[in-house]
Amino acid sequence: MENEADVVVCSEVIEHVDDPVGFCRLIRSYLKFGGRLLVTVPAGPMSAFDYYIGHRHHYDRTSITQVLDAAGFKVEVVKLAGFPFFNLYRLAVIILGKRLISSAKSSGERSGAGTLARLTMALFRVLFRYNLVNSAWGWQLLAVARRPAGCYTPGY
């Protein structure tokens, strides 16, 4: 089943992985030559909640490019999105910090999120439509990379 896929989408995964280069090499082994990898990862500062949910690292244009290059990809585009409303949402997560972790831990004990949380998320879902797609200040990152033709890495 190696080299079968034209496109692989890896959304909100790599930030949880201890060896992102090795992980991307494994992904590359499933792509046809010339196939594309689409990656989304968080950018911007990490919060206590990010650590709690298993984030090992947040990325910027340089660091995601370095990971993908080291894994044998040719990076075509890196965009930072989410400014300004996703950034505001992330700032709220950072400010809430440990309270958000406590809420996440106890959410299993009660049914559903509170009314204020549901209303807040409904508001952000509307506001997210007005985020800039590519801004130097975005805290959400999208990278598109291609597996070069004839590219081979032993062992992967």
Q: Can you walk through the features of this model?
A:
This protein is α+β, with helices and mostly antiparallel strands. It has one domain: Rossmann fold (3-Layer(aba) Sandwich). The protein contains 5 helices and 4 strands, in the order βαβααβααβ. The radius of gyration is 18 Å and the shape is elongated. The two termini are 13 Å apart.
Low-confidence sequence ranges: none
User: CATH topology, what is it called?
Assistant: Rossmann fold
Radius of gyration (CA) equals: 18 Å
Number of strands: 4
Number of domains: 1
Overall shape: elongated
CATH class: Alpha Beta
Distance between the termini: 13 Å
User: How many H/I helices?
Assistant: 5
How does CATH name the architecture? Answer: 3-Layer(aba) Sandwich
Helical content class? 25-40%
User: How are the strands ordered across the major sheet?
Assistant: 1-2-4-3
Element-by-element helix/strand order: EHEHHEHHE
* Average pLDDT, all residues: 88
Structural class: alpha+beta
User: What is the CATH superfamily label?
Assistant: Vaccinia Virus protein VP39
Q: Report the major sheet.
A: 4 strands, mixed
Portion in strands: 15-25%
SSE topology:
Layout: E1 5-11, H1 20-28, E2 31-42, H2 48-52, H3 61-70, E3 74-81, H4 85-106, H5 115-127, E4 140-146
Parallel strand pairs: 1-2
Antiparallel strand pairs: 2-4, 3-4
Brief write-up:
With 156 residues, the chain is of the alpha+beta class. It has 5 helices and 4 strands. It has one domain (5-146): Rossmann fold (3-Layer(aba) Sandwich).
